[in-house]
Amino acid sequence: MFNRCVACAVGTTRGPAYDPALVDRRFFNWTDTTPIAQIPQVPSTYGYIEGVYPIMNDHRVAMGESTCAAKFVSKPVSGGGRARLDIVELGRLALERTTCARDAIALMGGMAETYGYYGSFWETPSAFENAGEALTITDPTEAWMLHMLPDDTGASAIWVAQRVHDNHVAAVANRFVIREINFTDTDHFMASANVLDIAKRHGFWDGVAPFDFTDAYAGPPDVTLSSSLRVGRVLSLANKNVNVDTFADTTPFFSAKVDTLLTVQDIMRFQRDHYEGTKFDLTKGPASGPYGDPNRYGWC
User: Fold this and answer.
1) What is the Cα 47 distance to its own chain's centre?
2) 89 vs 38, 93, 155, CA distance in Å?
3) Minimal CA–CA distance to 38: which of 151, 115, 117, 106?
4) In what order do the strands lie in the sheet with 143-150?
5) 143 pairs with which residues across the strands?
6) Omega into 140 within 30° of 0, i.e. cis?
């Protein structure tokens, strides 16, 4: 395990791409990264590709990432704390060692609980905004969403994962989206053993109402318009009965059934969307200028 420096761990033990003698030094003076922990090795591992964050392995286990605000912050061992793993190293371990999404989640959750999880920052004003992580994790037969944050000791982790129903689409945009957890439905939910106890101890949950993970653990700001709208827009483009207006201040549900099977071109269209045709249309209004420019700078 490494204390990451800017983008990735650098050293001669990870292959030529990470050799300090070969990396591009025009923008950063790379040096060997100091290990901060060790874990037991396995007899063999799978190949994978990454681009700062892990992407996909030999068995088509694939990941996407979205940083989320959370209510607890932890520090790595190298920063005076007790945590040893961040989301990048957890993802690498999962792609190296598992062949399906469900096993990848179990491995990352177990490792984070055992060795401690820390976010992107820990001693800056934005620490809470970057303390949590969401991963989309898929394999050829299942799709899942994982949420993770540090626990209240700084030495472990809290996490939950929900499976996306077949013929459904889900999205995450820098804020947790998993809501009520059905702990008896192990086919669609997985969670750390401490998820309820910590929430109740800190007053995030009364122990009586159905447990809502986002209500309990999503950090400040509690709701950001840009996050909820982006999720709602994806769901509304995939299902014409979803009204994006209902996502103006919350994410009321996790996923939506798609009207038709989505293609690669559909996903590209979703990514290029600027809320055209809705009251949130970024090509309209004074801020879009004389040419309907949807890009905004300095605010979301």
Assistant:
1) 22
2) 12, 6, 16
3) 115
4) 48-51, 53-57, 62-68, 132-138, 143-150, 157-163, 189-191
5) 138
6) no
Residues contacting 43, CB < 8 A, separation 6+:
none
Question: Taking the model in full, what pTM does it have?
Answer: 0.92
52: alpha, beta or left? (left if phi > 0; alpha if psi -120 to 50): left
Number of other CB atoms surrounding residue 32 within 10 Å? 15
Q: Quote the pLDDT of residue 180.
A: 97
For 45-89, the pLDDT digits (tens) are: 999 999 889 999 999 999 999 999 999 999 999 999 999 999 999
Question: Tell me, what amino acid is at 18?
Answer: Y
Q: Give the C-alpha separation, 91 to 54, whole Å.
A: 6
User: Please, what is the end-to-end C-alpha distance for the chain in angstroms?
Assistant: 35
Three-state secondary structure along the chain?
CECCECCECCCCCCCHHHCCCCCCCCCCCCCCCCECCCCCCCCCCCCEEEECEEEEECCCCEEEEEEECECCCCCEHHHCCCECECHHHHHHHHHHHCCCHHHHHHHHHHHHHHHCECCCCCCCCCCHHHCEEEEEEECCCCEEEEEEEECCCCCCEEEEEEECCCCEEECCCCCCCCCECCCCCCCCEEECCCHHHHHHHCCCCCCCCCCEHHHHHECCCCCCHHHHHHHHHHHHHHCCCCCHHHHCCCCCCCEEECCCCCCHHHHHHHHHCCCCCCCCCCCCCHHHCCCCCCCCCCCC
Rounded CA-CA distance 108/8 in Å is 18
For residue 299 the two structure tokens come to 């605010």
Give the Cβ contact number of residue 46 at 10 Å.
14
User: Of the candidates 117, 121, 250, which has an alpha carbon nearest to the alpha carbon of residue 192?
Assistant: 117
The set of residues, in sequence order, having a beta carbon less than 8 Å from that of 165 and lying 6+ positions away, is: 188, 255, 257
pLDDT of residue 6: 39
